[in-house]
Amino acid sequence: MTGAFWVLVVSGILGFRVGMIGYPDWQVAVETAQVVAGLVPYPPDNIFYIYHTKLWTSLHHVLALGLLAGFSELQLSLVVSGVLGMLAFQALAMVVYALSRDAFLSIGAAALIFFTRSAEYGVVYPLFLVGTEHTYGVVGLTLSVLVVATLGAGWYRTGAVLLGIAPSVHPSLGVWTGTIVALALLSDFRRLRVELRPALPWFLAGCGVTLASLLIQFLFVYHTPVGMTRLSPQDLATFVRAWDGHRSAIALWREGVQLNVAALVVACVWLTFFSDGLQRSSQLFLRISAAASLLALALIPLSWLPPDRLPSALLVLMPGRYLNFSALTFVATIVGLFGSYRTLWSRLGLILFTLGLLVVDRSMLWESIEHHHHVRYQSSIWTLHVVWLATAALFAAAAWTRWGDSRRLGVRQSPGVGSRGAGTVVVHAVQIVVLAVVVLMTLHQTQPRSGAHFSDRTNDAFFADVAAGSGVLVVAGDLHLVQLRTRRPVLVDSGALDTVMYSLETGAAMQRILSEVYGLDLFNPPPDAVGSGRIPPLAHQKTWEGYSPDDWRRIRRTFGVTQVLAYADWSLQLPLASQSRRLLLYDIPE
Description:
mainly alpha
């Protein structure tokens, strides 16, 4: 078995355990899978239903089969939470392995980067590794990184088949990954086409999986609604500016942008001056990394243009999210480059870098100390300051090593053939021990969740009452994942209005719902709604409390809703059907 195999296995087990046991959460992909499986009946013109049926990913197909096989939404959400952690740890570990070929370092570095939160610098789209309900973004990004890292580790056939499958998991990130790989191949086409030619059949096999998934989408899932109207370009631009923070203008001084610039510089410098000691597949990884940063940075000016000047397809793709690739991989790249040197200075550098990351402001070390020893301390050391210092030290040491080797030997010595004296062996052992401690601390880290967080129709009397009702629900404020917990159709997901970007033909209907049900104006959102993509509860509480029974009956006739889900401290002029400590369920009489 190769080192890459054990890196994938061990880091995958570690990440799955962290995601499923330490940081579980509901998963939005399971909610759409309910509709794909036919478990939640919707009117065909419901805008949330149209979103469910238009959003293509093979995740829905797999999860729908799980629901039909009898697994519950909670069980599948826990499993998917574990998969998020598995992919994240595997991706980070394989980046380190692609450059260092050091299995122990790679596994420990994945835990270190997670434990210190040193890869969570999302630009316009949040960058989480675990502990989030946003299935698509995490799976799409980590799978993209895993594809590139697998190619970098020399597993060309595995990387090629994953590259072909990636668009079926996340279409936009999958296509973008293919684009940066293609750009890297073009940069050294004569050599790489020969080297990668045996992987071509595997890539085509992966593409076959994607085509099969797309065929299933069109044959069994995709529905084209009749009579739906898109928002006008001006209204869509207003929604993007006022409600959707994921497509806002990107500031050049954001940390994620800085990491992309640094990744581009590191990759180019290493390929130009220090590539002698790296294997060819490692050089391919750096080429792809450079292409990813270059392309993502080139797309930044698009975010500065008025939304009505951009094609709607480009707005849907969310160009700013591609900056997250290098933001996720940069620290792992630096660790991998340190590990590519088998010298005393590189081992010492790795230990200092590890200790530096452990004491930064974002590190979970302080939370762990507070939890176990009731000592509260807030570090004032910024994570990126440690990262920039380590990067500068790596540059300086690599340049000094190359210069020294050239003087002594008249040739450039491979950095992987450094001194293996007693000091190096001892420091390497210390490094392994430190990373092992980080792994143990990672395994003990959890995200506390209340029992109510995982309540649904199977374990909570109130949600069971909601599930027992019939018809479409209208939900208050930013109540989110109500369908997932109850298997009841909802009028609109008020906690994720930006889903309209994936079903643009529902835009006019959403605008009408905002106005006639929630009393909100698309062009003048409440302050706490700006950039949030949700309906704030307080923005319409007085509106709903002021509706008369006749107003509610009009809403029922117009929008086909039968019940209202509101917060416990609200008082609506409707008969109460059920209540809990946090929520109320009202009937709308005919």
